[in-house]
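Page 42, continued from yesterday. The earlier attempt failed because a stray header line got pasted into the input along with the sequence. Redoing it now with the clean sequence only.
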Amino acid sequence: MLSTPVITRFAPSPTGQLHVGSARTALFSWLYARHHGGQFLLRIEDTDEQRSETQFSESIFKDLDWLGLNADQAPVYQSQRQDIYQQHFGKLKKKAATYHKDGAWYVNVAKGLNALKQLKVLDAQGYVVVNDLIHGAVKFPPDELEDFVIIRADGTPVHHLALVIDDAETGVTHVIRGDDHLSNVPRQNILHALLGLPIPQYAHLPLILGPDRTRLSKRHGATGLDEFRAQGILPEALINYLARLGWGFGDQEIFSLTELIEKFSIEKVNKTAAVFDYKKLQWINKQYMKRMETMSMAQHLQKLSGEDFSTHQTAIELLMAKCSQPEDLLSALKYFTSDAYPTETEARDQYLSDPEVAHHIETLKEMLQKIDAFTLENLEGTVRGLAREMDLKAADLIHPLRVILTGRAVSPGIFELMHVLGKETVLRRLERWLTQVQTLG
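This time it went through. Structure tokens are written below.
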């Protein structure tokens, strides 16, 4: 544990849905705080009145709650802290560190650099040195720093001023964010120094790229947490995947939340950008699906579809081994819950087009009617026994039978499937198909 209590924060702007990259930032901030027994804070940076919307703030809260990234205090809204920003701005004016130009107020960078020099964060050449936990020592030449606006012409504070004041007043010790903010550190540190506020430790995360190694965007696929949730991605799976985007612990792929908290270290985050792999996310999601209790999965499917699957737990358990996504599971459940399931054209043409199939199925139906108990042993013995009598391969009966009962070429094992469907349903579907064949013939 660190000598001083760790306090991290996540500070999104409510101008859109929560992006998966921002979710990773929130996760790493949360994990770092939890690993060190510290606090994780939430701040809504809503000073941009034209773009900020309450619906997006509520969506952010919903997404963080879905992921389980609970904050330790009530969220802070920058829009409610304007008086506090003005008080600190007054301190800067008294120090003659600002000047008025074109209706706005600017910071005198030269005075800011002098204040940083006193804090010994400039090197011998006068470069601003940022000791980042991920990137190491990053230097910024002073001649590239220009005076910058801190109060707009309309009297509102810019992002840098509000951020610096909020971080200091809430005791933030570690600022974890995307490395597109790394270039902002010199200006923010100047404000820290001029206001006499402590400078936090920084850790800038490399950006997340799409498969083509450009910045992850909508054109690559889902990027918002609302989209992943709608697809049926489990929150535990997304947490696991995001944690592995740029961080790792040996060859381990699957982590419980307790393990992530125990093992996470910001210093071990990669310096290079991570590539978002949708297939890998689906694989991880499948691992979590396999571990779920069937009732939990039934409840999850109900949230996605609005349908009650509590009476179909046996079917869910049978399908979970075959389906990598909840949406696939929902699709497959259609042939368990209703006779109104579609038949794949390719499967029909491949396995039901031979005129002899109807004769085989008619004979099989008659034999199944004589079975008292639809046990796995009885079903397998009947189907394989009939195949031998007809001098057929078992597959010549099983494949057509599967397509008739499910509409698909792929399903769980045919005998397990028939057992779960039950005698009445199996016979009804076979009779329906035979009637259709006779009608068409």
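Notes: The chain has a mean pLDDT of 93.
Reminder to self: strip header lines before submitting.
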